[in-house]
Amino acid sequence: MNLNNRGLVNYLLLPVSGIFYLLSRIRKFFYQAKLLTTYNFNVDVVVVGNITVGGSGKTPIVIALVNHFKQQGKRVGVVSRGYGGTHQQGSLLVDQNTEASISGDEPSLIATQTQVPVMVNKDRVQAVKDLIIDHNVDLIISDDGLQHYAMGRQIEIAVVDGKRRFGNGFFLPAGPLRESESRLKTVDFIINNGAEHVGEITSTLKALMFVNVATNEEQPLDFFNQKTCHAVAGIGYPQRFFDTLTQLDIKVEVHAFADHHAFAQTDLAFDDDYPILMTAKDCVKCREFATDQMWYLHVEAELSDDFLTELTNKL
User: Fold this and answer.
1) How far apart are CA 46 and CA 59, in angstroms?
2) 142 near 49, Cβ under 8 Å?
């Protein structure tokens, strides 16, 4: 679909967006008026979410925050809806051995990179309760869930994509907004992923190394310099990943898939022996059929010491 047709479709969807907006406002009012119950817990809950759909870069920030609080001596747990996974009912404890097709890619990645208990449940309240009871955590980070008002929280962090911001400014389904931009006035922190903006905390993704999906071999960032590689991404904003590889002087043949795409071996069956480069979030879905041609780019979200100190002091 070309841009002109897409714009026309978005305008045709505006009446549906209006209904979505009204329903979201009514739902929020019911929680504010205590007509619907918000459950509060005896441990601190930090929500890392956004007001848009699509990849704003929350997961690396969640991982960075988990690692920060672990260094502070906290017993940290993470809750997630498990979007894209096949798990449907009850709570699922995710660890590095859990298949990403079951848990969803983001919980699998968080569990693998942090080694903390990650609980998947569409009912985030129950997920929090299970983490507290079964794993004796004293701090919980919610990956997404800004709009899950049944779950009480001490801190709200909204992540904004530094380049795309709020897209066309329309609500779902005509645009990317889940809530209005005014919602950002009520959160504790706004993290801008990839750019600078007044009143927002800048976070950048720092590329560290390439890691082989099959063997865990590590190679420096210049390992694929001037080499032709397949660049594969099934994330919300794949162009960010492709641009990063290009900045590393890699000649990329790009293959963009839908966000949370369930990769199969046939997706990566190319008619050559070029290396295949992917994101860490995608690689957890390819471990079962990984070959030594597959590598992922290991990145970390950089957050300022001032922000981390202020966040810690608020809890």
Assistant:
1) 14
2) yes
